[in-house]
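Here is the promised in-class demo. Please do not try to memorize the tokens; focus on the logic of going from shape to residues.
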């Protein structure tokens, strides 16, 4: 393990998933987002990046350290 701090990402739901595919809705829920303008923080991993790529039109992403 390296001594570098774990990078964090703040994700905010800015658009409803209503009208989008079930896959998008499940991804939003898996991110821990339940309502509009809710913000959650996650470790920046490749799995998370893939999820954010799928629903990037519904969320706002902020990188933090």
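The designed amino acids, position by position:
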């Amino acid at each position: 393990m390296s001594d570098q701090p774990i990078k964090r990402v703040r994700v905010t739901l800015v658009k409803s998933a209503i009208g989008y595919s079930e896959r998008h809705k499940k991804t939003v829920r898996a991110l821990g987002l339940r309502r509009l303008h809710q913000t959650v923080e996650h470790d920046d991993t490749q799995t998370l990046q893939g999820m954010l790529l799928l629903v990037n039109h519904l969320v706002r992403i902020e990188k933090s350290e």
